[in-house]
Protein: Homoserine dehydrogenase
Organism: Alicyclobacillus acidocaldarius subsp. acidocaldarius
Amino acid sequence: MQIPIGLLGCGTVGAGVVSLVRRRADRVANMTGLRPVIQKILVRDLHKDRGVHFEHEQLTTSAEDILGDPDIQIVVETIGGIEPARTYILEALARKKHVVTANKDLIALHGPEILQTAAANGVSILFEASVGGAIPLLGPLQENLTANEVTDLKGIINGTTNFILSKMTEEGLDFDEALALAQELGYAEADPSSDVDGLDAARKLVILASIAFHTEVHLSDVRVEGIRHVTASDVRYADEAGYVIKLLADGRDRNGRLSLSVRPTLIPKSHPLAHVSDAFNALFVRGDAAGDLMFFGRGAGRMPTASAVVGDIIALVRNLKLGVVTSWPYALAGSRKPVVDFEDDLYKFYFRLMAADQPGVFAQVAHLFGELRVSMETVLQKRVAGGQAEIVIVSHEIPGKLAHEVATRLRSMPNIAVEAVMPVEPVNE
Ligand SMILES: NC(=O)c1ccc[n+]([C@@H]2O[C@H](COP(=O)([O-])OP(=O)(O)OC[C@H]3O[C@@H](n4cnc5c(N)ncnc54)[C@H](OP(=O)(O)O)[C@@H]3O)[C@@H](O)[C@H]2O)c1
């Protein structure tokens, strides 16, 4: 028996989904007796070359041809963005169709509404591809690790920024050069702000944290800082001190209190996340029973993302065979764990200062650190042109708010400019 599928959008991911469903249809039919078939595909342009073959009658520009077709039981959304994707998904769920989406923006911003609509209509919604592309993350967190209290999520979950920071580290490029290269190679969009300002990673952290920590998480719960201000000097000094700089998505659950941030962070070279380069993604998870785990792989691209989408489609076909529905309990409970001020968390901090190259200036800095009882783990001092010296200090662990106070007091000194302040990830907590 055939399971007709409606596909909304057929771009990079959608075209991969079409070809992968065709490749796996026999296997799914052998496994379940049900054969998934892409029946209708919504696009804007009927004549575009999509790199896969279609019967002309499969394509449509009318969403109603899919949403209003009673034979279609599974709808796959690969349009992206908020509208019209949100309206189409809510409409499909209301008409009792199961839904698969790769849309992180939509799930991060409207997840509770969408999950509650699915539950109210007795249908499933799956969105594995929305975080980490091919890497199985949501399934393991929701299913295989469900016996754990997950306390920590640490992820490199934006390929564009990881590519840029990797090129800055490996080839000594500055931010603008590395961004231009990422754009030339298709890793970064013409408007890269969602990636480089950390918003894309923050949206993915919202999805991961809500599932791992069993609570509703909002984008405003995440403290977000991008990588535009990271310089080639920061990357070089971090290297000298034994670290690499990564855009780290960090979620912690401490006895039901959450702290969530996305920010450039110094990672010790001995940490497994330090070796995640280029456009690869990784997620480090700590569970009270499982201990430490790390998931690694391709976070984007046509076939890696299609792998996750089609995995969800096959899960839905199995659900249909068994007559069951996948549920996401956190969204229904309406539970909201409190989010604590990240400023109370303890981290080592990296400070880069530009100071007048005169006797006594470093003593002033050292005096301030002493007065605020912040001890220094590493100090590097380099002479640069124009009577200026660059001073790099890595502190021992201090609360974020104390690092903030150090920076404010340094800024008030006449001969000193604070160029960068970044947290440092511990080797092993
Ligand atoms: N690309 C990746 O590597 C990747 C990785 C993980 C997740 N995702 C997610 O996957 C989703 C799709 O991304 P993508 O890269 O495949 O996007 P894309 O290449 O831009 O494809 C979007 C598709 O949607 C269609 N479309 C756009 N607006 C439409 C509208 N108003 N009505 C009907 N059709 C419309 C387009 O039709 P036309 O072709 O006719 O213009 C196109 O086929 C996004 O949510 C994205 O975040 C992508």
User: Anything to note?
Assistant: The chain has three domains: 2-134+302-333, 143-298, 343-424.
